[in-house]
Specification:
Length: 409
């Protein structure tokens, strides 16, 4: 694809930016493999080193070199690479950017022909499929769970029998945990957290066939009504009201007794070594259990001259043994069902996150949805005094317009 062809991705990606082992020769003449470049969005030095070490193992076996670069701003740098006509040979492609890249035909749909294509969780395959094609292999995943400060839990006289199984249980626990200096529950004022309540009420933002927006459904209203109830009763506060940048920080500071976050919560141990917590599955709503799943896939540029090499590298990076090495190095959950089962046994404290992926869904992320969700998030910040019906009516109109545009209507 020529430089002019890549140029359009810069504008599309800028919109999205507002929204977060064993080597294999695969029977190829490895002496012809070219040096490769890999661009990642790293969580820190441990992840960068782990990916570079894995790439080096493959490179050594295939008599070539792989340079791994940790982006300071992955969305921006990836867009610059495409607009300049020199995208990296392999890169992290997040769930919220995938639809935009795939719809513009900037990704190689290689995953459907990989030998391990059926090893991944179906929800992850769906997240990285477009128009029926499985495009890029997921590298790992995270789901949302309920994180409980166990010291505050015990101090409130609560036991394992009180762990919330439904919304009534969540309300009861949050009330008992709310004291003068601690709120019972906290999570981000955004769709990526509040959306699970809408789903637990039986709602969704899109119809099952993905052709119609269903944002203003009664179930979605019920989900936001539950959040408003918690907020108006004072047992739910958003991080900004707790002098915190995110819910995990509020948990670490002791300002929130329960938060809704993912396995990345383990990163708090460095800043708050005395914090004791446990992760459990999110309670069910009237529509059943639900949580969100978030992931990145290994993206390859369309018509890449190094596609053969990068597919071989991806095969190595997504092998169970290598994914489990990544888990040990920086805490991610493997994307294959077999490796995830081993992870669940090895890291029982994170078992709830693995179990959640059995019924998890990916947040809506079709091309053009990003700006609408950003506006939706701004309205959700005032949910305590806002009107859920009015908020969702606005979302319905704007999201349907975006979906029509994405479908060329």
């Amino acid at each position: 694809m020529n430089k002019k062809g890549w140029l359009a991705i810069a504008t599309a990606v800028a919109v999205i930016g507002g929204l977060g082992a064993c080597a294999s020769s695969s029977g190829t003449d490895t002496s012809k493999y070219k040096p490769l470049t890999v661009l990642i969005g790293s969580s820190g030095d441990a992840e960068t080193k782990a990916v570079q070490d894995a790439a080096n193992t493959w490179a050594k076996a295939n008599k070539t070199k792989v340079t791994v670069t940790a982006a300071s701003d992955l969305t921006q740098q990836l867009g610059q690479g495409f607009s300049g006509g020199t995208p990296p040979d392999l890169f992290y492609m997040s769930w919220d950017q995938f639809q935009t890249y795939a719809s513009k035909k900037y990704l190689e749909p290689y995953a459907g022909s990989q030998p391990n294509k059926d090893a991944f969780y179906p929800t992850l395959k769906d997240a990285f499929s477009y128009n029926g094609k499985f495009y890029c292999e997921p590298k790992d995943f995270s789901t949302l769970g309920l994180i409980i400060n166990t010291d505050k839990w015990a101090a409130a006289g609560l036991t394992n029998a009180d762990i919330p199984k439904d919304w009534a249980g969540l309300e009861s626990a949050a009330k008992k945990l709310t004291t003068g200096d601690t709120v019972g529950l906290s999570f981000g004022a955004e769709y990526a957290r509040m959306g699970v309540f809408m789903n637990q009420a039986g709602g969704s933002l899109l119809s099952k066939d993905g052709k119609k927006v269903t944002a203003d459904s009664a179930a979605n209203v019920a989900g936001l009504d539950e959040i408003k109830k918690l907020a108006t009763e004072g047992v739910l506060k958003f991080p900004s009201a707790l002098d915190s940048g995110w819910a995990g920080e509020a948990l670490g500071k002791g300002k929130a007794a329960m938060v809704i976050e993912g396995p990345w919560i383990s990163g708090l141990k460095g800043d708050y070594p005395d914090l004791k917590y446990k992760a459990v599955e999110l309670p069910a709503g009237p529509g059943g259990t639900s949580t969100f799943t978030f992931s990145n896939c290994w993206g390859i540029p369309a018509q890449s001259p190094t596609a053969a090499e990068t597919q071989s590298l991806v095969k190595s990076l997504t092998a169970d043994a290598q994914q489990l090495k990544f888990s040990a190095a920086f805490g991610v959950i493997p994307s294959t069902t077999s490796a995830a089962k081993t992870y669940e046994t090895t890291y029982p404290d994170n078992a709830a996150f693995v179990k959640g992926n059995d019924y998890a869904v990916s947040p809506v992320a079709f091309a053009g949805a990003a700006t609408v969700i950003t506006d939706f998030n701004s309205q959700l910040e005032g949910i305590a005094t806002g009107d859920p019906k009015a908020i969702l009516a606005s979302l319905q109109k704007n999201l349907q317009a975006a979906l029509d545009a994405a479908n060329g209507k």
